[in-house]
């Protein structure tokens, strides 16, 4: 399977249909990676209002059913979030339901891969999963214990990934490793030696600061920006995420980004349709905030994802004037009282 090349977002705004819907179906994880919220103690997690929970099947099915009302098909439904998707007991059934109802052009899972037993692999392959992205935390048992505080059988883990790759039908498999897991000069070569032959694509990615309570510089000396790759953050005033995506949380709440503390809850899928939520005043207000300056929202102001993690084609700062025209925003005073007077 070939993943489409990302096109400049500005050329497609405003969107009648989101490009992507991210399903945060589980806030449980079997790892405690040092850069992740799961490494924090319960008191710190409570301060962030992080509650471990899984998405009920009825919420998931309602979300998929609601997607039928959009004028075009969503490009991607991505199972990811602040937990391990494979911890959800119904994950294969969810993939099957999404594919059966044509929820998206591509249905994808982002996983640490450690729970991908041959039995589960068979179920996901049968469900016709389109893409599997595996995030590695090391190249041996010692690396995993150091990075995510968990003992694993590394050779068995590699055999799980190889089983999926050898038995898959059309699923595109992508295996990546984070830079802090490569703790020796030969790590990159070792990574490609082990994994190049058991996936369609293998890549090294870089850690960027996501949680204020964690000292990321202690973990990695290379905090890299995806645009410049020079180890320095590039400040971004307009976050692109709410312009093209929706995130459905385990309880059915819907927001516009992957922040642990959502800047705005647009609504809940059990109370409104997803189409109503996409066109809601709550979402429009967040778009206004982004165009006039995301610093007006306290969550967006302190979020590092736009500065480190945005993809090519999603940078909108230079198009502020065009965005003001596209969304016909009044009250252009870089505050929160701007409003959309009418959308194309």
UniProtKB/TrEMBL annotation:
UniProt xrefs under Gene3D superfamilies: Aldolase class I (3.20.20.70)
InterPro entries xref list: 4Fe4S-binding_SPASM_dom (IPR023885), AdoMet-like_SPASM_containing (IPR034391), Aldolase_TIM (IPR013785), Radical_SAM_PqqE_MftC-like (IPR050377), rSAM (IPR007197), rSAM_sf (IPR058240)
Native source species: Desulfitobacterium hafniense (strain DSM 10664 / DCB-2)
GO molecular function terms listed in the Swiss-Prot or TrEMBL record: catalytic activity; iron-sulfur cluster binding; metal ion binding
Domain of life: Bacteria
Keyword Iron: yes
Keywords, sorted A to Z: 4Fe-4S, Iron, Iron-sulfur, Metal-binding, S-adenosyl-L-methionine
SUPFAM superfamilies to which the protein is assigned, alphabetical: Radical SAM enzymes (SSF102114)
Domain (Radical SAM core): residue spans on this chain: 15-230
Name the UniProt record assigns to this protein: Radical SAM domain protein
Cofactor(s) listed in the protein's UniProt record: [4Fe-4S] cluster
